[in-house]
Amino acid sequence: MAVSIVIVSHSARLAEGVAELAGQMSMDEVTIAVAGGTDDGSIGTSIDKVTAALQKASNPEGTLVLLDLGSAVMVTEMALEMLDPDERQRILLSSAPLVEGAVLAAVEASAGSTLQEVAEAANNGHEMPKGRWS
Amino acid sequence: MPVTNKDILHWLQRSTQVLHENNAFLTQLDSAIGDADHGSNMDRGFSAVITKISGMQEADIGTLLKTVGTTLVSTVGGASGPLYGTAFLRAGMATAGKQHLEGAEIVAMFEAAVEGIKARGKAQAGEKTMLDAFIPALEAGKQAQLEQVPVTELLQRMAGSAESGMKATIDLLATKGRASYLGERSIGHQDPGATSSWLILQALADTVAS
User: Biological process (GO) annotations (chain B) (predicted)?
Assistant: First the structure.
């Protein structure tokens, strides 16, 4: 069984788009759950959606959570505090950029790597070159 | 005269009304330096709070405040959800089982709330956030408590200091939250979070005074 991925975004469409992109790379061998937007579908983050996505992704190998902006971190941290400690220790929050991190994590997870390895792979997204102009 | 659980209920009702009336104003402040949703987020969150606490006339203050916290976390949507949610949850823990609060207990309640906001937002004073209203208010509350002033005056002083702190955010550079993406351009605008914090503290002072 592979490490799961959870995408937390202020936008439902952004979360689904990132999941779609990462899913293509992992050839659907990795569970990628999304928590995008508020409960009524507007821009924001929902603790209930995050909790549901964490439950959907829950597995013995662990879960890596990737996020977009500030308050997604706070909402996810609150959701984690509500889980029981056994479940919580199988979940890591990634500070990786969302798109690069999700794709790298999906590739790594589909290779059967550990949660730590998947988290490190996602972190490489910080240094992923996009062009020569910077 | 201590603050009773009835006062707390009336405070929450007044806060809901005040935030509803200031929905457009808060959103206008947030559109200048944020994502233009603070007014509607707070209005939505407190509307849900009122529905949730409508049958809680006999509940103790801790139970009331914890209910407010959990409701705000799941209904506000923006960063204010976890921040205000944590503040009210911590305030509820500090007042667990209490039917009324003396000055020292009010100060302890706000101290717990402020610590919660700091921890949740990994924030401190001077970053152009709600803490820039709450921290001066807490300091004023502590000073008022040292001077043993009546609770009504303690709360007035807290609200007054929150208002000064809120106005002082105009000159601050935002280093937390969405406004920090604007860098120097965040200077010259009043922080919406500090503004809603003042409105809520002023609502408490007005509730207990009347």
Answer: glycerol catabolic process
Which of A43, A47, A69 has the CB atom closest to B73's CB atom? A47
CB contact under 8 A, B82 and A75: yes
pLDDT tens string A85-133: 999 999 999 999 999 999 999 999 999 999 999 999 999 999 887 766 5
Test mutation, B76, B93, B129, chain A, max A CBs within 10 A: B76
Q: Under a CB-based contact definition with an 8 Å cutoff, are residues A126 and A97 in contact? A: yes
Domains belonging to chain B, first-starting first, are: 3-209 (1.25.40.340)
The total number of structural domains that make up chain A: 1
The Cβ of residue A84 has, within 10 Å, a number of other Cβ atoms equal to 7
User: First CA to last CA across chain A, in angstroms?
Assistant: 39
B100 and A89 in contact (C-beta within 8 Å)?
A: no
What rounded mean pLDDT belongs to chain A?
A: 93
In a domain, A72, yes or no: yes
The CATH number of residue A45's host domain is: 3.40.50.510
Of B77, B79, B177, the CB nearest to A46: B77
pLDDT digits (tens, 9 = 90+) for B121-141: 999 999 999 999 999 999 999
By C-alpha distance, the chain A residue nearest B80 is: A71
d(CA B161, CA A39): 36
Closest by alpha carbon to A63, among A30, A24, A26?
A30
Q: Which of A2, A3, A8, A10 is catalytic?
A: A10
C-beta atoms surrounding B55 within 10 Å:
8
Listed residue (A22, A25, A83, A23) closest to A58, CA to CA:
A83
Q: What is the pLDDT of residues B26-59, one digit of tens each?
A: 999 999 998 899 999 999 999 999 999 999 999 9
- Taking CB atoms and an 8 Å cut-off, how many pairs form between chains A and B? 49
For residue A126, indicate whether it is catalytic.
no
**Of A38, A42, A74, Cβ closest to residue B120:** A74
